[in-house]
């Protein structure tokens, strides 16, 4: 004889599937993931699988993905950061409010980056929107400049090939210029065309775009174009304080990345990037007295908002040899 209680249980599969015990376990898991996102701790693929309850086949597939591959899990972004002691390490971050929809699938899909069309070429989108002041006293408020640094951005093999390629292009580097034509404002040499490695770096940056959006606290968007420039800073080179979207032809740059590399042992000193905090004067962002110092660490990339004022301190390179220089690829992502 079927009791009334058993009949209710039989007719209520939802009640059986989503029991209070399972909901409680899910909440605990979400709390753990949230804690990892806030702490910036990295975990291995196996630890990630245990945390998110992935099966063995999915773990095997994840272990085949390139560094900086990202996917979403609920309202979090999970990004492969590289290797430590031969183990793949992953970072977890909160999803932005309007996240890019990335799901785990057998085939990885690269973001599509389209050039600006002729009809859009003359349009300038100001990013970010001008900050509206509540009162005159707000002009003294300091806005910290957000940034983050990722290390081991390229594999050792890719880094070696990039250095060899850079050396082969030494004769093609030309003195850099700026829009104001001030000859004493920037001293460095640049290479504008290096398609094989510029595309490699752009692809890697786009793979972590959800992480960039989350960490810099900006709205998600589809890039209209991405530029990249290879710079060589040798003895006495520098770049005085500036931002990357302060002119009409650069106003739609949203975020900047700088990839540092050099041969070992390091043969130069200096060349640090000073990233200034901001304050507002007459409705314009200007540099505050406070700043962060970013070291040009080999095979690392720094990411920050293009509106932030920054400068490159002078480089000292006693040998003055080309391959002893401080090399960097600077890229700008436009909206």
Automatic annotation (TrEMBL):
Entry keyword set: Dioxygenase, Iron, Metal-binding, Oxidoreductase, Vitamin C
InterPro entries: HIF_prolyl_hydroxylases (IPR051559), Oxoglu/Fe-dep_dioxygenase_dom (IPR005123), Pro_4_hyd_alph (IPR006620), Pro_4_hyd_alph_FE2OG_OXY (IPR044862)
Needed co-factor(s): L-ascorbate
GO molecular function: dioxygenase activity; iron ion binding; L-ascorbic acid binding; oxidoreductase activity, acting on paired donors, with incorporation or reduction of molecular oxygen
Pfam families referenced in this protein's UniProt entry, alphabetically: 2OG-FeII_Oxy_3
Residue span, Fe2OG dioxygenase domain: 211-335
Protein name as catalogued: 2OG-Fe(II) oxygenase
């Amino acid at each position: 004889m079927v009791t009334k209680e058993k009949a209710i249980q039989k007719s209520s599969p939802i009640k059986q599937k989503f029991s209070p015990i399972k909901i409680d376990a899910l909440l605990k898991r979400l709390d753990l993931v949230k804690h990892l996102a806030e702490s910036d701790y990295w975990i291995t693929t196996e630890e990630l699988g245990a945390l998110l309850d992935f099966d063995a086949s999915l773990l095997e597939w994840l272990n085949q993905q390139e560094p900086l591959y990202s996917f979403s899990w609920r309202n979090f972004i999970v990004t492969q950061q590289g290797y430590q002691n031969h183990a793949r390490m992953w970072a977890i971050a909160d999803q932005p409010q309007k996240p890019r929809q990335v799901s785990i699938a057998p085939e990885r899909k690269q973001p599509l980056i389209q050039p600006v069309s002729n009809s859009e070429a003359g349009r300038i989108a100001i990013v970010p929107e001008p900050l509206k002041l509540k009162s005159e006293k707000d002009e003294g408020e300091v806005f910290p400049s957000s940034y983050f640094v990722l290390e081991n951005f390229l594999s050792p093999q890719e880094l070696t090939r990039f250095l060899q390629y850079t050396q082969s292009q030494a004769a093609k580097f030309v003195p850099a210029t700026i829009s104001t034509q001030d000859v004493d404002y920037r001293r460095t040499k640049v290479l504008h065309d290096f398609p094989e490695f510029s595309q490699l770096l752009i692809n890697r940056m786009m793979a972590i775009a959800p992480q960039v959006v989350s960490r810099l606290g900006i709205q998600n968007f589809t890039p209209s174009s991405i530029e990249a420039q290879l710079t060589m800073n040798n003895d006495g080179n520098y770049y005085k304080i500036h931002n990357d979207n302060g002119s009409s032809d650069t106003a739609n740059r949203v975020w900047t990345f700088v990839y540092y590399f050099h041969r070992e042992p390091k043969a130069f000193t200096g060349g640090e990037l000073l990233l200034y905090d901001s304050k507002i004067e007459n409705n314009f962002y200007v540099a505050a007295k406070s700043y962060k110092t970013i070291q040009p660490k080999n095979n690392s990339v720094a990411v920050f908002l293009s509106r932030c004022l920054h400068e490159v301190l002078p480089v000292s390179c006693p040998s003055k040899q080309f391959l002893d220089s401080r090399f960097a690829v600077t890229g700008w992502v436009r909206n």
